[in-house]
Amino acid sequence: MYKYDPYDQTLVDQRVAQFRDQVARRLGGEISEDEFKPLRLQNGLYMQLHAYMLRVAIPYGVLSSKQMRKLASIARDYDRGYGHFSTRQNIQYNWPKLQDVPAILAELATVEMHAIQTSGNCIRNTTADHLAGVARDELEDPRPWCELIRQWSTFHPEFSALPRKFKIAVTGAPTADRAAVRVHDIGIRMVPNPSGEGPNGFEILVGGGLGRTPRIADVIHEFLPREHLLSYLEATLRVYNRYGRRDNKYKARIKILVGALGPVEFKRQVELEWAQIRSGAMLLTQAEIDRVAAHFAGPDYRELASSDTAVAALGLGQDRVLGRWVQANVRPHRQPGYSIVMVSLKARGQPPGDATSEQMELIADLADRYSFGEIVVTHEQNLVLPHVESSKLPELHARLLAGDLAEPNIGRVTDIIACPGLDYCALANARSIPIATRIGEQIDDLDYIHDLGEITLNISGCINACGHHHVGNIGILGIDKQGEEYYQLMLGGSADDNPSLGKILGPAFPTTTIVDAIEAVLATYVEGRESGDERFIDYVRRVGLAPFKQRVYG
Amino acid sequence: MTLSMITGNATDDGAPIYLRADGSWTRALSEGKPSTADELAAALALAKTQQRIVCDPYLIDVKLVEGRPAPTNVRERIRATGPTVLLPIARELAA
Questions:
Q1: What is the pTM of this model?
Q2: End-to-end CA distance of chain A
Q3: Prediction ipTM score
Q4: Residue A538's closest CA among A412, A454, A467?
């Protein structure tokens, strides 16, 4: 993984010192909240319902065991013993005291971490495929490109006051979008060179997003040679910065601009701008690409025989607890003899994405023991141990089980994405976490959950859609009706290679009946599917909403 | 008559705080001063100048329940009482 150079470290250390001074002046009464707010937001510090919330960046989701231990100790020493892994592959602390935040940032800086640009109208943490570097279906590792984007976008003076926040996602797997690139401001897909030879390049998608105006991104450049990545991003951001609306924050995201201009005109504007800068200072040299890529060379794997057959046998073996976990939580690795292990943070009754200090430390220990000290955070709010020798899977499973981290539900209906909702968030209209935990408690038959197969269920507590409800196969949106919580149900969303936005099923449900409605939706699918091979999303696309409406509303 | 109360978040730790009748701040909603929005206008203006103590003060609607103020909407109810999900420490104790 990437290691800071002295320039990176100095930048972060200086920011800690700067913020320490700003906090001291705030607590000393020298500056007001109005003056302080933009300063704290530049350091990821929000004010939520019950306390401050500190959002810490995890660049493209990649963590070392040392960093994870630091996150655990911060949770224990400065917070309430847990952290929340978010849909942006970041971690959030829900209870920091203002006077402690400089110390927390200083602790983070010792492990090459920070909270810079995790808030505000700037380029946020770039996210990536959580299987980057290990997936079999990957064309090329996207992480070096994410790191180049991180370095380009950090403290970029021209883009520190954009019309609105800006999110970029990158995938190196052209046939399996695990990074939801089509619902980001800019999505980047690595694609093969159309000439059939030469280096891979990028397909550039612009104008995707969720929130109150969900939109699937448009392709504006089908094959961008790799050396031009940063200049093309710069040109795109410049067009957005110049023409994006600043009069209405709800119309300020780039998706609104792309929609208003149309993708053809937007592309024309970008290419005009790009023509002026493409051969300038941002042209990436091979030496620079190689310098960054060297950080992601991969661990020192042992030479092992293929383990595919052995892993498949584990999945079907007599130990059903282990078998279910292998089937749901283990993915094939590109290195023979190794597997990718998905660690579910969706145990029954637990808030999705939350991990205690003890769990974080256990994961760090297991990463050291089984996965070359590497951990990845997924945008689905789970963790990954990316390099596990397949022969060690039973041993690892036993240790995860002891830490309540072996829920066999990755990609299943109880692997719920949920925002913090009205239990924490100042913007929320309704709670998300209790709905998620109730679904997990009500739908707890593991055989049934596995029989349901792949289903994504996403919950947002408000229209801002941090829980990605628009792209859940089943989406739940919390709304406010005269001061009380109600939930809109939508079906048919997907963020994968065949993206779609969910459609509202009908009138919203009160808290008391929303989980029953979900059960009715699932029962409709089970009774109507052609076979066990027809996935929920395929069934919804085949039959539409009618049978669900009939079952749910009668 | 609609009753209101002045609330904001404490500067030190972000906790919800409520304005008492004597002008001091309390973390217990039940100790806050309910009144009409008109009657609270001057106190709200003053609260907005107390930025060392309180961040972004605003009015919430309350009603009297057994003589004590209670929020009329779910947001302020949760804000006053804390998350409705058990924090890990509480889950450990419950287990």
A1: 0.96
A2: 54
A3: 0.95
A4: A454
